Write a sequence for this structure.
């Protein structure tokens, strides 16, 4: 659910996704709410994988433990490119807490906090 990780630093990352009609999360020519959450989580996973690869560490599986303060203002349509920006807020005892948002054009269309186990 992410086409490319286009930026990553010590505490943040940005990924992009081009929404195709063949995407399994398309309903009535729009990307679903669940897909927006998954896109944010997959951007966080790509960030963690990249960080581990560049640090010569093994890549571990992670799981969404919780989604908090979810706001979805708009569902993007097919043939649209969206971006997810994530920021690592904290890493505590096997949990990574991130703030995430999805941007379409210059508009923030979704945001949340995700707790990832792993």
């Amino acid at each position: 659910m992410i086409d490319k990780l286009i930026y990553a630093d010590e505490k943040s990352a940005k990924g992009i996704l081009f929404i195709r009609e063949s995407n399994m999360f398309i309903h009535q020519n729009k990307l679903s709410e669940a897909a927006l959450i998954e896109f944010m989580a997959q951007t966080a996973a790509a960030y963690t994988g990249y960080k581990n690869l560049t640090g010569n560490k093994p890549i571990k599986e992670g799981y969404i433990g919780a989604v908090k303060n979810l706001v979805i203002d708009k569902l993007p349509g097919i043939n649209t490119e969206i971006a997810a920006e994530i920021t690592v807020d904290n890493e505590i005892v096997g949990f990574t807490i991130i703030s995430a948002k999805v941007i379409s054009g210059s508009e923030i269309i979704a945001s949340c906090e995700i707790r990832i186990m792993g």
Observations:
- Strands lie at 4-8, 12-18, 26-27, 30-31, 63-72, 81-92, 95-104, 107-117.
- The longest strand covers residues 81-92.
- The chain has one domain: 4-117.
